[in-house]
């Protein structure tokens, strides 16, 4: 075995160890969360909390908001130890985190401060729909998700992302021009080519499009700029450009509406009889009563868990299509294969995870598969058979 082969084997082993540890933590966290929320409801503890915090009827807005915020905060605190282990301790162990414990906790607090008002607004919107449209509320909610998701995608790069990272125009003007030329060839003009200080938190690499319409921009992590060649960066950006050309963001917005329809329909189908036949679980028989929130949460979790493999399978199909487009746009499958290889090494991704894990957890095809497809395209190009 040569030195390069030995290094490659060591990288693959490290990636498998890291990825499979993270996958086990994810599966354990999902199971633990579902068991805890189910126990909260079916032991009657949720009913006791409901009686203590909410009147049987006509809870005020202040009471409802405090109740929802308390449940959200308790849930976040309960998951914090596992989140810290996975998001900080494991990342440190494998040399991926550049944060201190205090900085990690600060990010968690900041994220919760931003997400909590959104969570409370969603809950209030849900119960408003339940009260106004008791039989068709799930259709109303599914319809509302599409514009809300689109608005959030528009605002995220402008209002939220800068709270966590510093964005600035790409300093390498030649590379910025090259990437603009690439996206212009694809018919996707961008407002800016930016770089972000991802190295403040991690050594992982990333690049993405942010925003819709006039806010659309390319964002490159400084960790990628430090380790990838211009040709490799061009390949990664070409992949992200494919999502814009194929209107994938709108496909996912529409898909979120479909899955909201299915999960909300499942809640309507299952949570109503649950409350009617087992009122001790929530101290109410009425789905439109805010006391039903823990029961709705359990049914929602189960529905989302069952639908998740379908969402992930669709995502993997989209990513394969984007890979093919990127290779065609750049005409450089060799550099694309190298980019995928570097992403796998730098992000410590298992090159070939077990199929059940890919089915259950992964939104992208295995790195080994993506490299193999690019290398096949390179062979066809060189041999003139493609």
How would you sum up this structure, described in words?
- This protein folds into 2 domains: about 10-165 and about 245-385, no CATH class; about 165-230, 2-Layer Sandwich (Zincin-like), CATH 3.30.2010.
- The protein has 13 helices and 4 strands.
- The protein has helices at about 5-40, 45-55, 60-95, 100-130, 135-160, 175-185, 220-225, 230-245, 250-275, 295-330, 335-345, 355-360, 365-385, and strands at about 165-170, 190-195, 205-210, 215-220.
- It has a 4-stranded mixed β-sheet.
- A hairpin with a 6-residue loop joins strand 3 (about 205-210) and strand 4 (about 215-220).
- Helix 11 packs antiparallel against helix 13.
- The radius of gyration is 23 Å and the shape is elongated.
- The model has no long low-confidence stretch (mean pLDDT about 90).
List keywords for this structure.
386 residues, 4 strands, 72% helix, 13 helices, single chain, mainly alpha, 2 domains
Please provide a brief summary of the model:
The protein has helices spanning 3-42, 45-53, 61-93, 101-132, 137-160, 173-185, 222-227, 230-245, 248-277, 293-330, 333-346, 355-361, 367-383; strands spanning 167-169, 192-196, 207-210, 217-221. The chain is mainly α.
Any idea how many domains?
A: 2
What spatial order of strands do you see in the largest sheet? 1-2-4-3
Along the chain, the helix and strand elements come as: HHHHHEHEEEHHHHHHH
Q: Structural class per helix/strand content? A: mainly alpha
Query: How many whole angstroms does the radius of gyration measure?
Result: 23 Å
Supply the number of helical segments.
13
């Amino acid at each position: 075995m040569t030195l390069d082969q030995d290094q490659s084997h060591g990288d693959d082993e490290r990636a498998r160890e890291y990825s499979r540890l993270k996958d086990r933590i994810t599966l354990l966290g999902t199971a633990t969360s579902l068991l805890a929320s189910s126990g909260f409801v079916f032991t009657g503890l949720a009913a006791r909390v409901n009686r203590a915090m909410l009147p049987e009827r006509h809870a005020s807005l202040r009471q409802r908001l405090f109740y929802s915020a308390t449940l959200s905060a308790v849930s976040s605190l309960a998951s914090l130890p596992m989140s810290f282990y996975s998001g900080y301790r494991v990342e440190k162990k494998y040399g991926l985190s550049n944060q201190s414990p205090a900085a990690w906790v600060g990010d968690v607090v900041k994220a919760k401060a931003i997400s909590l008002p959104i969570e409370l607004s969603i809950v209030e919107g849900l119960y408003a729909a339940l009260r106004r449209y008791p039989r068709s509320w799930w259709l109303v909610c599914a319809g509302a998700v599409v514009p809300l998701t689109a608005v959030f995608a528009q605002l995220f790069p402008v209002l939220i992302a800068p709270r966590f990272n510093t964005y600035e125009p790409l300093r390498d003007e030649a590379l910025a021009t090259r990437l603009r030329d690439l996206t212009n060839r694809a018919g996707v003009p961008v407002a800016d080519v930016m770089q972000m200080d991802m190295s403040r938190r991690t050594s992982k690499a990333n690049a993405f499009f942010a925003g819709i319409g006039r806010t659309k921009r390319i964002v490159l992590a400084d960790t990628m700029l430090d380790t990838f060649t211009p040709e490799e960066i061009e390949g990664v950006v070409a992949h992200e450009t494919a999502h814009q050309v194929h209107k994938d963001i709108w496909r996912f917005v529409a898909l979120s509406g479909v899955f909201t329809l299915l999960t909300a329909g499942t809640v309507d189908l299952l949570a109503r009889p649950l409350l009617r036949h087992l009122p001790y679980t929530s101290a109410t028989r009425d789905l439109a009563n805010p006391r039903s929130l823990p029961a709705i949460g359990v049914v929602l979790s189960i529905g989302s868990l069952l639908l998740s493999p379908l969402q992930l399978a669709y995502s993997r199909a989209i990513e394969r299509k984007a890979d093919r487009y990127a290779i065609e746009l750049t005409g450089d499958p060799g550099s694309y294969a190298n980019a995928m290889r570097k992403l796998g090494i730098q992000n410590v991704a298992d090159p070939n995870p077990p199929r059940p894990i890919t089915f259950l957890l992964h939104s992208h095809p295995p790195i080994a598969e993506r490299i193999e497809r690019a290398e096949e395209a390179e062979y066809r190009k060189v041999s003139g058979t493609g």
